[in-house]
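Narrative of activities, Objective 1.

The group set out to show that a structural description can be obtained from nothing but a protein's sequence at a throughput compatible with the screening campaign. Below is one input-output pair from the validation batch, recorded exactly as produced.
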Amino acid sequence: RISIACYEAEINLVIHSNGGTITFEIDDNGGVCLSFDDIGPGIPNIELAMTPGFSTASSKAREFGFGAGMGLDNMKNCASEFHIESSSEGTHLKMRFV
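Output recorded for this entry:
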């Protein structure tokens, strides 16, 4: 579950943002927390972006097989906890796995 969610978030960061950071933490009880913070352009409509099949991937990304519109939904389904915030300055995504 962790690797699927992490992969989906990594790909989104690379395809849709202008860079950012990934933080991977393991707590004393074996819980894992992944945080992704990217730099713009943000997600204008998070509810729509969470809809399976919806994608804003470029034609170049689609040429490489990305952009099926399942990334955010896959992340949410894999994580024990899922939180996303976005603005024109960037997106913050945090997932916890227990």
